[in-house]
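Hey, resending since the last one bounced:
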Amino acid sequence: MEFLRYKTAQDRYRLGVRTPEGLYDLAGCYSRFREQGERAIPGIAMAFAQASLRMLLARPRVNAFLEAVRLSDAHCRPAVLSEDSVALGAPLHDPGRFIGVGLNYRSHAREMGQAIPSEPPLFAKWANAITGPRNDVILPTNSQAVDYEGELGVVMGCRASRISVNDALDYVFGYTVINDVSARDLQFRTSQWLAGKVADGFAPMGPGVVERDDIGPSQGLTLETWVNGELRQHGHTSDMIYDVPALVSYLSHLFTLEPGDVIATGTPAGVGMSRKPPRYLKPGDVVRVRIAGVGTIENRFRAPG
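The structure tokens again:
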């Protein structure tokens, strides 16, 4: 299943789920679930009110409800929604943590002239950077070197502390597509990368979060990025230096991961900074990132004002 945030023209954002049968409102699915005599899930009403996948995943006993939806029981379904009538937001807009991983593809390390890191280089992005899979991104006035980075995003499904590599995927809920937009001139002013990563809108995400079991091995995915129709990145997650289980385990030994935490797992070769001369984004550019089996996001970059 794929979990989405959506709204109609007159509506606030709501949580939805896409199954082989179509797109459904998740709160409606829960109402049918309760009509079948199932126990109430504490706190789930607030998760629906805030359209928060993070809050939903943190609810006790939520797995029983999600399993009922997975079974495609017609008694648990409301009417299907028309996808043409809804706008998608970022599927997870309020993570407790948004962790980025740098130089995590061998091809990207080579193009940047960097050695293979002995441990994953980490940085933070914040929730203000998250924007929807089709939203415009405003280029900041204080940067002339805004770059694209197509990435696989990992969404945690449950609390994880000091877990092994072998067990790590059991704690992962699903995957999404992220463009880790980066202002290179701000990023490298100091030894810390934060300034180049956290501008408003610098993390387009979506279109949804696809459950882990629907994807198959996370190391078997093709990632592509186009700018104005020109293919700039064509990579494969098998090129990761630290794969998803290794990253989740590593992070869980630094701090406790929580449901809804997001990990941006790094980008393959082909970023604008590596071109000779560099090819940074300008107003009007359209960046499209696709990960096979996970989805496609497409965002136009525009000048402020």
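The first helix runs from residue 26 to 35.

Sorry for the duplicate.
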